[in-house]
Amino acid sequence: MFEYAPAPESVRPQINEHYGLFVDGEFVDAEDGAVFKSVNPSTEEALFTVAEAGEADVAKAVAAARRAQEAVWGPMSGSERGKYLFRIARLLQEKAREFAVAESLDNGKPIKETRDFDVPTAAQHFFYHAGWADKLAYAGLGPDPRPLGVVGQVIPWNFPLLMLAWKIAPALACGNTVVLKPAETTPLTALMFAELCQEADLPAGVVNILPGAGATGAALVDSAVDKIAFTGSTAVGRAIARTVAGSTKRLTLELGGKAANIVFDDAPLDQAVEGIVNGIFFNQGHVCCAGSRLLVQESVADEVLERLKARVETLRVGDPLDKNTDIGAINSAEQLSRIRALTETGAGEGAEAWQPACDLPERGFWFRPTVFTGVQQSMRIAQEEIFGPVLSVLTFRTPDEAIAKANNTPYGLSAGVWTEKGSKILWAAERLRAGVVWANTFNQFDAASPFGGLKESGYGREGGRQGLEAYLDV
Length: 474
Ligand code: NAD
Hints:
alpha/beta, Aldehyde Dehydrogenase, Chain A, domain 1, Aldehyde Dehydrogenase, Chain A, domain 2, 22 strands, about 40% helix, about 20% strand, binds nicotinamide-adenine-dinucleotide
């Protein structure tokens, strides 16, 4: 195998030593003065400190968002709102390199992913929704769909800027104002986005950003907003649904997953192997729709596993800012210990773990790509979301058995099907209980395509015409 010289990214974004909360167009400290640190997971060094929002700050931000919605953003014409969104999209493109590096520093994900996926796709969401802002009456949701008002949004750490874009772009296009809470381990790009809103002259109070942990999120859910949009774990989603039940607040939930990536014996195996690798090792496996269960037809299982292991041996784990890196750092010490604990249950329950012989950096949070064989459906590694670079391999003999096994989890977010036969793709897609089914590909996203789950993966859709419905009173 070739050895590559290091190819470090040279751009360094402007990262402040300290960030405030972004409320009513200004950066301010928390009422009670609380702060926390954000850590670079590849070095364990603190990157900056940031104010932590409490209940009083949430109330202030929601009041600012309410004023802005009623006085400015709600009454504004769709075409004017669209201009702001186009401006935000263009600014994101202009600053793409800085955002990509900042995301890699704060999150640990490889620069080639932030540069080629996270940031461009975030910009795409703003461009796409900018186009909708003056065409909402033609979205098939009634002749005069109205905004909901003020929206509280809570997002996870796995795609910090992209999840922000998935939430903020449609909300603003539909005439709502927002109070968004980024995840506690990855607030940086949300704060840089707040600076970008200032640069775009977005009216004060239209976007408010409140860094903080679970308590801040819970306070936002409890506040006087009209809707909560949440992306995160099923456990927290369930708690939020309980809080919101009985109130007039709307709720959409984008939760966890345990996707099956099904390889039939007539599949193009080399492409399938690429799809398996992308499905589970993209973003260190910190992906809600990751193809974390490989279901492979028994007759080709040995061949697929052999090619898969050879391919995984070539993956480069290490410095997220190196352009050759395929797998970066695990986002936090907590997530690393969760991955370790669940992986140990796999070995304990009798599955066989395989890992490539790669070196890991000494400092930071790292986990080797792992492939489990001999996995039974009842094992925790076949049922629970590991949210790390860990693949569980199961086999099947007939298409019916593949579908039964694929559907045998509480989740229903995504699935993949690999076969040369179009009829088999359609047959499988009809039977898979998943919000998204990819055929002969995996992890494809587009702002025009709705994304969301079935079963315990949540409800509501983000993206596309369908995603607008979640932000309109129709
Ligand atoms: P998490 O549920 O622990 O946290 C998500 C967010 O909720 C964070 O901002 C957190 O601070 C906040 N939070 C925590 N407790 C809260 C509470 N009681 N009330 C309100 N907010 C609270 O999840 P995580 O570990 O950050 O993210 C990983 C999870 O997110 C995985 O399960 C993954 O599948 C899921 N996810 C889903 C999608 C999707 O679109 N379906 C996308 C990305 C991630």
